[in-house]
Amino acid sequence: MNVYDADKVRTVLTFRGWQEVPEDDAELVIITGCSVRAKAEQKVWSELGRYENSWKKNQSPVVALTGCVAQRLGKKALSRFNWVRLVSGPRHIGLLPNSLEKIMADPKIKISLLDDDPREFFNLDFDEGNTAILRENKYKAYVTIAHGCDNFCTYCIVPHVRGRFVSRQPDEIFNEIDFLISDGVKEITLLGQNVNSYGRDINLNFAWLLKKVSEMNLKRIRFVTSLPQDFNIDIVDVMAARENICPSLNLPIQSGSNRILKLMNRKYNRDEYFEKVNMTREKIHDLGLTTDLIVGFPGETEQDFEDSLDALKTVKFDLVHSAAYSEREGTPAATMQGALPVETRLKRLDTLNKIQDGITLEINKNLVGRTFEILVDGDAPKGENLLQGRTPSDKVVIFEGAKNLLGKFINVKITEAEAWCLHGEVIE
Ligand code: SF4
């Protein structure tokens, strides 16, 4: 979400004549940070401190802190560091370009744009100049369909730093996608903290939006993140009916224990979760299913942890984004009874990851010999002449190929499987 917001700001500033330069030459540095994990927040503090010497010598660069991390640390950062001259919460993104210009024009001012009202939202008119958002990948793009979240899971900082749920107007979404299509984008990921609740504040729904987007000239559509309690058959039916909606779903379970799910304020139990998975798999073959799971939540017993392991073995996810619980100040879970020692949390994480690696590898090995259409989206991280792309179900495939394949859809036969990726060869 923060990357996408940063791309929007970059687009507007570039259109206004600002130039991106190497950091050593910069008069202004914009740091857009995440506050979901405590570690990311600590990183931001050390980043901000890095400019001290340069500021003392040259009174430069000016630093602006944005994103959800600014919402949490903004006040302190503004008073602690002279070089931090602007802080902006994510819902003030629309006021950012003018405010940045103001602080650069007047060295005496500091500006604070924190989201004090969680329902207020200042949209950024990113299509100033009728252009698509500048982004790192030419062929793939994210499009936000809703901001904020109303769910208040007890471990999560998001509703506190990104405010309440608000859907974007459909026309705005369609216009943004049109720009992206005309700019060469082949794959769109619809983005929101909980995409499944799209439209409930404007009398629409996510299944409707998904179908509308699938009628646009796009080869591939994905969406993240879904919330089990809001994920429904209408969405599955649209996914099944429209060929350009990828058979890929991230459905965070967070825990396999009903007791812990309750403590987390997740509004489903494990059986309801399993039912949603079965309902989806019945209609969508070759579904790539991933999940998010936290271990070591306050009060998690050995049995609760076993229930989570059992959920992995029952569902057999393609991939699990796992994390050891870490306290986020300001959330109810941070002060709950029964905090587990960090070593226990990490040990459980390690056990879970080992089990899941085995499951992922087994699933991937079953794909050897099959052929998939992939969108070639970049160079592989390692190795000469190696490119990478993703299958419709969102598996990374690495293969040898010429650069002119970038941005194309090609067929690749899977020749080898690892837990984190597949290897293949191009089929002419
Ligand atoms: S639904 Fe997601 S974003 Fe919203 S509070 Fe729960 S975990 Fe956080």
3D structure, described in words:
Helix 8 (about 205-215) runs parallel beside helix 9 (about 235-240) and helix 9 (about 235-240) packs parallel to helix 11. The longest helix is centred in the C-terminal third of the chain and has 24 residues, at about 340-365. The model has no long low-confidence stretch (mean pLDDT about 90). Among the domains are: about 1-115, 3-Layer(aba) Sandwich (Rossmann fold); about 370-425, OB fold (Dihydrolipoamide Acetyltransferase, E2P) (Beta Barrel). It is α/β, with parallel strands linked by helices and about 425 residues long. The protein is built from 13 helices and 17 strands. The structure holds iron/sulfur cluster (SF4).
Report the end-to-end length measured between terminal Cα atoms: 37 Å
Order of helices and strands: HEHHEHEHEEEHEHEHEHEHHEHEHEEEEE
Q: What is the global morphology? A: globular
How much of the sequence lies in strands comes to 15-25%
The unreliable regions are none
Q: Tell me the number of helical segments per DSSP (H or I, 4 or more residues long).
A: 13
Cα-atom Rg, whole angstroms?
22 Å
Helicity range: 25-40%
